[in-house]
C-alpha cells in the first residue's frame, strides 16, 4: 500500500480500498500471465467433466497431482459448474445439526455480568444440587512479554461461592469450580475473554478521531467487521448454509462476489494480501519464515491511527494463517487480540475437543463471535475494525459450515437488533477453497477450490446513496489455475 492509498483509507468514504486491495493486487500481478480463454461462457456440468476425465483423474487428482489439462490451461476460464449437482450433493452436505459442546463436557456454572463473575445457581441446582458446590476460583491469563506465543497465569484467586468483582482492565481468565464431596474434584471449568474499556486511552482515541475528521473530512464512518471461515468455497457455502445465503441476499441485500478469487492456495498469501497490501512474493524479498511478522505492517495500525478500536481473533494458535510453521508476531497487532486465551485453552488437555470446534462447553464460533460482540457492546458509538478468523470449523471438513449457520444467523440478528449494522460494513468471507477431502477429489471440487466465498453487507442508507446506473461493468475473467482477480456479479451491481 503506498502513501496515497493510506491517506484514502483514512478517509471514511474510501474504506473499500482495503477490501479490494488483495484482489486488485491479483490483477496487477497476474494479468499478463495468461490470455483470455475461449470457453468463458460455456456451462460445464459435473457429468460433462466426468465424461472427459479418465477414471483415475476423476478419483485421484488433488493438489499434489496434476489436474486435467482443461482446468490448468493458461487461459482465462471460469467453468460454470452446478453447485447443486446431485452427484456433488451426496458428498458435500454433512451433518447440519447445530454444533453443541455442552453435552459431553462439564457444566458451565459461572457467567459474567458487567465486571462481575457470578455463579449460576440455577445451573448448579440442575447439575449437582445446591448443597454440593463447594467453591470456585479464577486466575488471569496474559500474553508473555515480547512473544505473543506464550502465556502467563496469575496466582489462583481466593475462593468464592456467589460472586466476585474482577479487576477493571482484565482481558482473559480461567475459572474452575469444585464440588463438596469429594472436596477437590473439579466440576466446572471455563475460559473467558473480556473487552477492557482502557479508560486511560480514551483521550488518545478521541484526539485521533478528531485529527482524522479535520485532516480528511470524511463524509461518513463505517465500522468494518470481517468474519472469515477458513477454506470455504463459494459453492460449498451455498450448499452448507443455504438459509444464511438467502438471509444475506434477500433480507440484508448483501453482495455475493460470485467470482471472488484467491491470491494463493493457503491462508497466509490471502490474508497477507488483504491485511497488508503486499503479496507473499513481495514480502519474501526482505522477509523469511523465521523472522517476526510484525514487519508486515498490517492494516490494524492504520485504523488505530484513525481512531478505530481494532480486534483480531484466530482460533488455531498453531496452524493458523499467521502461525503455521512456527511463524510469529512479537507484539499483538490489534489492540484486542485474544491469542493468549486460545493458547491457554489449547494447553489445557481435554478442554479443546472434536478437532478444535469445541472449547469446553462452548462452540468455537460462539466463543469468537461473543468476543467481537463484546467489543461492539463496549464501544457502541466508536468506530471499530475487527477481524475474526474461524479456522477450525471448515478448514478440514467444509460440510461442517452447516453446524455454525445458526450461530452466524444469531450474530447478524444481534447486529441488526442493536442498530450496529446500520453503521457497519460486514464482510463474511473465506480465503481459499478446499485443498483436500472427498469433495476436492472431484472436478467440481477442483473448480470450487479456486473460488472462495465473500458476502458484503452494507447499511441500507449506504446502498441507496451509491448509484451505479446505466452501463453494466464488464465481466472480468480470471486465470483459472493462477491467482484470480475478482469479479462481482454485474447484475447485482446495477441493482444499487
Ligand atoms: C448456461 O446456463 C445458464 C443457466 O442455465 C443459461 O442461462 C445460459 O444460457 C447457459 N450458457 C450457455 C453458453 O449455454
Ligand atoms: C469433453 O470432450 C468432448 C469431446 O472430446 C468435447 O467436445 C468437450 O468440449 C469436452 N468437455 C470439456 C468440459 O472439456
Ligand atoms: C450430528 O452431530 C450431532 C452433534 O454433533 C451428533 O449427535 C449426531 O450423531 C450427528 N449425526 C450424524 C448423522 O452424524
Ligand atoms: C443459568 O443457567 C440456566 C440453566 O442452564 C440458564 O438457562 C441461564 O441462562 C443461565 N444464566 C446465565 C446468566 O447464564
Ligand atoms: C449432592 O450429590 C449427591 C451425590 O450425587 C446427591 O445424592 C445429593 O442429592 C446431592 N445433594 C443435593 C442437595 O442435591
Ligand atoms: C485430592 O486430594 C487427595 C487427598 O489429599 C489427593 O490425593 C488428590 O491428588 C487430590 N486430587 C486433586 C485433583 O487435586
Ligand atoms: C440508519 O442510519 C441512517 C444514516 O445515519 C439514519 O438516517 C437512519 O435513521 C438509521 N436507521 C436506523 C434504523 O437507525
Ligand atoms: C447474479 O445476481 C443475480 C441477482 O441476484 C442472480 O439472478 C444471478 O443468478 C447472479 N449470477 C450469477 C452468475 O451468480
Automatic annotation (TrEMBL):
Entry-linked SUPFAM superfamilies: Alkaline phosphatase-like
PANTHER family xrefs: FI08016P-RELATED (PTHR10974:SF1)
Superkingdom of source: Eukaryota
Alphabetically ordered keywords of this record: Membrane, Transmembrane, Transmembrane helix
Protein name as annotated: Sulfatase N-terminal domain-containing protein
InterPro entries for the chain: Alkaline_phosphatase_core_sf, DUF229
Membrane-crossing residue ranges in chain numbering: 12-30
Pfam families linked to this entry: DUF229
GO CC annotation, single: extracellular space
Amino acid at each position: 500500500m503506498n502513501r496515497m492509498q493510506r491517506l484514502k483509507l483514512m478517509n471514511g468514504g474510501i474504506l473499500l480500498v482495503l477490501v479490494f486491495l488483495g484482489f486488485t493486487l491479483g490483477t496487477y500481478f497476474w494479468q499478463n500471465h495468461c490470455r483470455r480463454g475461449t470457453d468463458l461462457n460455456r456451462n460445464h456440468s459435473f457429468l460433462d467433466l466426468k465424461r472427459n476425465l479418465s477414471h483415475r483423474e476423476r478419483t485421484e487428482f488433488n493438489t499434489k497431482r496434476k489436474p486435467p489439462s482443461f482446468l490448468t490451461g493458461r487461459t482465462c476460464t471460469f467453468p460454470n459448474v452446478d453447485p447443486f449437482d446431485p452427484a456433488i450433493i451426496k458428498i458435500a452436505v454433512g451433518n447440519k445439526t447445530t454444533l453443541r459442546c455442552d453435552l459431553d463436557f462439564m457444566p458451565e456454572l459461572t457467567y459474567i455480568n458487567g465486571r462481575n463473575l457470578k455463579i449460576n445457581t440455577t445451573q448448579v441446582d440442575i447439575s449437582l444440587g445446591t448443597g454440593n458446590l463447594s467453591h470456585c476460583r479464577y486466575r488471569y491469563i496474559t500474553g508473555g512479554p515480547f512473544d505473543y506465543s506464550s502465556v502467563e497465569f496469575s496466582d489462583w484467586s481466593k475462593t468464592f461461592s456467589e460472586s466476585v468483582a474482577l479487576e477493571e482492565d482484565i482481558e482473559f481468565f480461567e475459572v474452575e469450580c469444585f464440588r463438596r464431596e469429594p472436596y477437590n474434584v473439579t466440576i466446572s471449568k471455563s475460559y473467558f475473554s473480556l473487552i477492557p474499556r482502557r479508560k486511560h486511552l480514551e483521550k488518545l482515541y478521541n484526539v485521533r478521531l478528531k485529527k482524522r475528521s479535520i485532516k480528511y473530512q470524511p463524509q461518513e464512518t463505517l465500522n468494518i467487521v470481517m468474519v472469515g471461515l477458513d477454506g470455504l468455497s463459494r459453492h460449498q457455502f451455498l450448499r452448507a448454509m443455504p438459509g444464511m445465503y438467502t438471509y444475506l441476499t434477500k433480507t440484508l441485500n448483501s453482495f455475493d462476489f460470485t467470482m471472488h478469487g484467491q491470491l494463493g492456495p493457503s491462508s497466509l498469501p490471502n490474508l497477507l494480501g488483504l491485511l497488508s497490501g503486499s503479496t507473499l512474493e513481495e514480502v519474501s524479498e526482505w522477509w523469511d519464515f523465521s523472522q517476526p511478522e510484525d514487519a508486515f505492517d498490517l492494516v490494524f495500525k492504520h485504523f488505530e491511527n484513525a481512531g478505530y478500536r481494532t480486534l483480531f481473533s484466530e482460533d488455531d494458535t498453531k496452524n493458523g494463517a499467521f502461525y503455521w510453521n512456527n511463524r510469529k508476531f512479537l507484539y499483538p497487532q490489534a489492540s484486542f487480540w485474544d491469542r493468549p486465551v486460545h493458547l491457554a485453552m489449547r494447553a489445557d488437555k481435554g478442554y479443546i475437543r472434536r478437532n478444535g470446534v469445541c472449547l469446553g462447553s462452548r462452540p468455537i464460533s460462539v466463543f469468537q463471535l461473543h468476543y467481537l460482540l463484546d467489543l461492539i457492546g463496549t464501544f457502541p458509538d466508536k468506530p471499530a475494525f475487527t477481524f475474526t478468523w474461524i479456522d477450525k470449523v471448515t478448514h478440514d471438513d467444509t460440510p461442517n459450515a452447516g453446524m455454525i449457520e445458526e450461530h452466524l444467523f444469531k450474530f447478524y440478528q444481534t447486529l441488526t437488533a442493536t442498530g450496529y449494522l446500520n453503521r457497519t460494513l460486514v464482510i463474511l468471507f473465506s480465503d481459499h477453497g478446499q485443498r483436500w477431502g472427498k469433495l476436492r477429489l472431484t472436478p467440481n471440487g477442483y473448480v470450487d477450490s479456486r473460488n472462495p466465498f465473500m458476502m458484503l453487507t452494507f447499511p441500507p442508507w449506504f446502498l441507496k446513496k451509491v448509484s451505479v446506473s446505466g452501463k453494466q461493468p464488464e465481466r472480468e475473467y480470471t486465470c483459472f489455475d493462477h491467482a484470480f482477480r475478482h469479479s462481482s456479479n454485474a447484475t447485482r451491481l446495477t441493482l444499487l
